[in-house]
Amino acid sequence: MAHTAMSGKGTTPGDDPLQTAVWRLRSRACWADAAALLEPRAEHDAGAALQRAALLVERCLYTEQGWAEAEDALRTAEALAHDDTERGAAACERGQLAYAATLHGVRDRADEARAALGRAAALIAPGAPGRALLDFRRGLLAENLARSPQAARAAYRRAHAGAAAHDDPLLLSFTWRHLAGLALRDGELAEARHGFAESLRIREELGYLVGTAPALASLAEAEGEPEASRLRAEARRLFRLLGGVPTWLAAQLAPPPPAATA
Q1: Which residues contact 228 (CB under 8 A, 6 or more apart)?
Q2: Nearest-CA neighbor of 90 among 53, 125, 40, 43?
Q3: CA proximity to 199, closest of 222, 183, 175
Q4: CA gap 147, 27 in Å, rounded
Q5: Would you say 206 and 177 are in contact if contact means Cβ atoms under 8 Å apart?
Q6: Pair 202, 21: CB distance under 8 Å
Q7: Domain ranges in the chain?
Q8: What is the pLDDT of residues 70-113, one digit of tens each?
Q9: Alpha-carbon span 124 to 81, nearest angstrom
């Protein structure tokens, strides 16, 4: 995504101070505060409007809240988009919002998600920086809505290659984790363990706190005891620290029921 008049993503020294502040808030699950920093520019700048919309869409996925605000921000971004790259990025965010609403049972918007991501694919050229994120999101739809692990794996692999080519470590942390999840489903424990460990390493290096608990919990699924219990305990600590975000992690981290006694 292009961030007009802003440099970097806030994750490396020398990035625009605004991007650094936005990243720090986002990584700590403070999406509304991060979006507020962008609001003055987002009223007239397409890049800032797209980034603000993306933050609020991400908040919906992680918290199951803020749907109306995300819709409003997305409409603003769509109205300001003036070239295929920006229109494609806005369509990608619309697809993600529709996916999140469907995944969380807010409303079935699967057809809208597919249509929006298809529109994004027609606008974002193969090899363009935004294509890797689009491929990843198409993988999410294939895995979680279409229940097609083969299509999901192919999309995740394209996204993984694109993220590596464009030096996008955060996206790599997602592709590593989701490819590892498919490997675990297929019983490939060593491959799953490696992918989950890479995802966790990247997130810890970036300081992506809100994504660290899911990475710990995923790695625990591929580890034996006592390491698995240690990883889950650390994930629970971070989950509580962030106020129960991401919400969908609660069930995975629920402690096992006490053993029945005769």
Answers
A1: 220, 221
A2: 53
A3: 175
A4: 29
A5: no
A6: no
A7: 8-124
A8: 999 999 999 999 999 999 999 999 999 999 999 999 999 999 99
A9: 13
Distance in angstroms (rounded) separating the CA atoms of residues 18 and 158: 31
Distance of CA 117 to the CA centre of its chain: 15
**Cβ pair 101, 76 in contact under 8 A:** no
Q: What angle do CA 97, 193, 59 make, to 5 degrees?
A: 20
Q: Tell me: the pLDDT tens digits for 107-153?
A: 999 999 999 999 999 999 999 999 999 999 999 999 999 999 999 99
CA–CA distance, 86 with 26 (Å, rounded to integer): 22
Residue 186 scores a pLDDT above 70 = yes
What is the C-alpha to C-alpha distance for residues 238 and 213, in angstroms, rounded to an integer?
Answer: 6
CA distance 201 to 159: 19
Percentage of the chain exceeding pLDDT 90:
86
| Amino acid type, 172 | L
**Can you tell me the distance from the alpha carbon of 175 to that of 155, in angstroms, rounded to the nearest whole number?**
10
**Residue 120, token pair as written in the block:** 């994004």
- What tokens does 260 get? 């029945």
- For the stretch 172-176, contacts whose Cβ atoms lie closer than 8 Å and that sit 24 or more positions apart, written own/partner, are 172/198, 172/202, 173/198, 173/199, 173/202, 173/203, 173/206, 173/208, 173/211, 173/215, 174/136, 174/199, 175/136, 176/202
Give tens-digit pLDDT for 30-67: 999 999 999 988 888 999 999 999 999 999 999 999 99
In CATH terms, the fold of domain 8-124 is 1.25.40
Tokens of 182: 């498919």
Q: Which two tokens stand for residue 69?
A: 């605000």
